[in-house]
Amino acid sequence: MAAAGRKPLVKDFNHFITCYLCRGYLIKPTTVTECLHTFCKSCIVQHFEDSNDCPRCGIQVHETNPLEMLRLDNTLEEIIFKLVPGLREKEEQQELDFWKKNQPRENGQAENARRQRIGLPDVRGDYDDGGGDGDDGGDEDCHRSDPQIAICLDCLRNTGQSGETSVTDLMKRFIRCSSRVTVGTIKKFLSLKLKLPSSYELDVLCNGEIMGRDHTLEFIYMTRWRLHGENTYPMVLEYRPRIDFG
C-alpha cells in the first residue's frame, strides 16, 4: 500500500485490478464463483475452452461446464474505470474499431455499431419489442438505452410435464430487447405471450443446451452462439416444456 503521507497511485492497486492471464487491467471483470478469482471476461472464457480449472489456483471449477460458474463484477469494473483515466474510452474505441472491421456493413450497420458498446448487431424490421400486453409491459422502457439484440424464439414440441405439448409457436418469433435481459425474463415473456399457467415451467435452450435463468442474452451470444461458430443473425433460442426425468 501507499506510504503514509503520500497520495496513493494507481500502481498501488495494480495487484487488485489486473488480470492474471493477460497482465492488463481487468476488462469486463468476471469472477469464478468457486474460488472468487477474477479475470477479464474474454481471457477466462478463452481459458475455459481448453480447461475446467481456475488458471490461478488450479481448483476444478466445474466438471463439464465451467462457464456456468462465472459472474460479471460490474462494481469492480466501475472502480477500475474511475481509477484508470481514459481506460473506459480506450476500450470503447477498441470495441468499436473491431466491430466496424468485422461486422457486415449492410442496412446501415456501420452506423448502428457506433451506438452499441458491446458490438451486438443492430436489428431492424418486424420485431416484437419484448413488451407485454397492456399493463404487463409497464417497465418495458427501463432498458431502452441498453445495447439491443435480436433473437428468434423457436418452439420445440417435446412432451413436457403432463405428457402434453401445450406450448405453441409465438405469433412473432423475432423479438428485440436489451442484451442484458436474462433467460428468466425470457421465460416470463413466453409465459405471458403463450398464456401459460404460473405453475408451468419452460426450458430455454441454445444449440441444444439448457440455459441458466440468470444468463443474459449478451453472455449467451458471446459464449454459446458466436464462439461456437454461429455466424447467422438473429441468435436462435429454443423453448420447450420442462421435461421431468424423475
TrEMBL record:
Transmembrane segments: none annotated. It comes from the Eukaryota. Keywords: Metal-binding, Nucleus, Repressor, Transcription, Transcription regulation, Zinc, Zinc-finger. The gene is LOC115019909. GO terms for molecular function: zinc ion binding. Residues 128-139 have a biased composition (Acidic residues). This is Polycomb group RING finger protein 5-B-like isoform X1. It is found in: Nucleus. One of its GO terms (cellular component) is nucleus. Residues 19-57 form the RING-type domain. Component of Polycomb group (PcG) multiprotein complexes; the complex class is required to maintain the transcriptionally repressive state of some genes. It comes from Cottoperca gobio. Its main location: nucleus. Component of a PRC1-like complex. Residues 98-141 are annotated as: Disordered. The keyword Endoplasmic reticulum does not apply. Signal peptide: none annotated. GO terms for biological process: nervous system development.
